[in-house]
């Protein structure tokens, strides 16, 4: 079966399946980042989270991150799956797998992917606490328009 | 007619996920101002904008038939 490398899903993520997507004979390393739902943030206890996505654009942006990675680190293969909907503590929200001939590239590219995701992929989380709830934004000190935004020409095509 | 998509806090504040804005052409900057005033959406100063699923700039012009999405600061991962 041909699974897409970049996906937004509503069901639990099976890590093994994402790893399989980047397996190849020339790889000597696969790094796997698993982002999970944390219970305590700055002294506040989260009961559960809700993720929302602008799904078609989120997939496009994940693909764009993939292209950026391939430019920076040739001969690398990546797969990213992000889950949306309601997630409990310790549930897996995101899995990023990167394979490369040598481990250094796989580590670096994997970290690049999660940092970029937090800049440009239209996904939002809402934290539900014992005594309230709020949409989380601005986890990074962002500028109004992130690098990688298309030029005027691209937008107007 | 321009289709407008809202997410996260914006969506909750307006109580809907999309709007229709009647006009032929408008810059994103002006469109943001209009919505900010009409719905008291002060968050508009801090949102990014996507036109037809691609990030756009304040001076870009959207036209009838386009889909404009306002993207509050993202928090995936």
From TrEMBL, chain A:
Membrane spanning stretches: none
Q: What is this protein called?
A: Molybdopterin synthase catalytic subunit
Q: Name one Pfam family in it.
A: MoaE
Q: Which domain of life is it from?
A: Bacteria
Name the InterPro entries for this protein: MoaE_sf, Mopterin_biosynth_MoaE
Automatic annotation (TrEMBL), chain B:
Question: What is this protein's name?
Answer: Molybdopterin synthase sulfur carrier subunit
Among InterPro entries, the record links this protein to: Beta-grasp_dom_sf, MOCS2A, Mopterin_synth/thiamin_S_b, ThiS/MoaD-like
Listed Pfam families: ThiS
Lineage, top-rank taxon, reads Bacteria
Which family, according to UniProt?
Belongs to the MoaD family.
Q: Which UniProt keywords apply?
A: Nucleotide-binding
């Amino acid at each position: 079966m041909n699974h897409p490398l970049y996906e937004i899903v509503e069901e639990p993520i099976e890590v093994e399946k994402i790893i399989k997507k980047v397996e190849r004979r020339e790889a000597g390393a696969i790094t796997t980042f698993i982002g999970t739902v944390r219970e305590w943030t700055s002294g506040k206890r989260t009961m559960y989270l809700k993720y929302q996505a602008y799904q078609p654009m989120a997939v496009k942006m994940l693909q764009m991150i993939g292209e950026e990675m391939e430019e920076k680190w040739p001969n690398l293969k990546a797969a990213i799956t992000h889950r949306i909907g309601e997630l409990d503590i310790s549930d897996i929200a995101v899995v990023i797998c990167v394979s490369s001939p040598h481990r250094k590239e796989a580590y670096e590219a994997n970290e690049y992917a999660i940092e970029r995701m937090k800049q440009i992929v239209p996904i939002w989380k809402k934290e539900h606490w014992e005594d309230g709830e709020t949409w989380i934004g601005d986890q990074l000190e962002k500028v109004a328009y992130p690098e990688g935004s298309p030029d005027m020409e691209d937008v107007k095509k | 007619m321009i289709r407008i998509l809202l997410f996260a806090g914006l969506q909750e504040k307006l109580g809907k996920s999309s709007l229709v804005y009647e006009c032929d052409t408008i810059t994103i900057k002006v469109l943001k101002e209009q919505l900010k005033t009409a719905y008291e959406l002060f968050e508009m100063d801090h949102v990014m904008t996507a036109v037809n699923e691609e990030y756009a700039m304040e001076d870009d012009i959207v036209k009838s038939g386009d889909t404009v999405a306002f993207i509050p600061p993202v928090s995936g991962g």
